[in-house]
Amino acid sequence: MIEETIARAKKLRREDDLEASQILLLDLLDEHPKDPRVLYEVGGSYDVMGEERQAIPYYQKAIKAGLDGSDLQECLVCLGSSQRNVGNFTEAVQTLEKVVADFPDNNSGKVFLALAYYSDAREDDAVRLLLELLLKTTTDKNILAYADPLDYYKDNLDEVWDD
């Protein structure tokens, strides 16, 4: 029942019927108030509606209720992004650093962490992380031609050469 309802809610979300999707999920939450997946999906429902402040506690409850695997990874990214969007930059950095530490092969957390670094006045860390990710993931030959200098610059962003 839970999986089927979540699948219907996601289908409605893809069809841009966000309110109907949310109603389904809130009804499901009434029936399963401690289910981590339901809590996560309710948070996501608020999030896609632009109501990040309402989403945050559901994400946090889902994590505390034992959400795991790829759902946990996605929930942490959504939580960190929402925290950043409402101005809780330090919390966002902490959440997203956890994502990167716990799920090092998933690059989406790194991109959102870079955004949180930027918002937290850690611009050097943001640029460094994005350059590192770009160098790791790009197949663009024009960028790869400059891989060595870009790798150097990511760790020496403020270096200036004197004549």
Walk me through this protein's architecture:
This protein is elongated. 75% of the residues lie in helices and 0% in strands. It is mainly α and 163 residues long. The longest helix is centred in the middle third of the chain and has 17 residues. Helix 3 packs parallel to helix 5 and helix 5 packs parallel to helix 7. The termini are far apart. The model has no long low-confidence stretch (mean pLDDT 96).
- Taking the alpha carbons of the first and last residues, their distance comes to 71 Å
Seen as an oligomer or otherwise, the chain set is single chain
Shape: elongated
Provide the residue-averaged pLDDT: 96
Summarize the structure in short.
The chain is mainly alpha-helical and 163 residues long. It is 75% helix and 0% strand. The chain has helices at 2-14, 18-31, 36-48, 52-64, 69-85, 89-102, 108-119, 123-137, 141-144, 147-154.
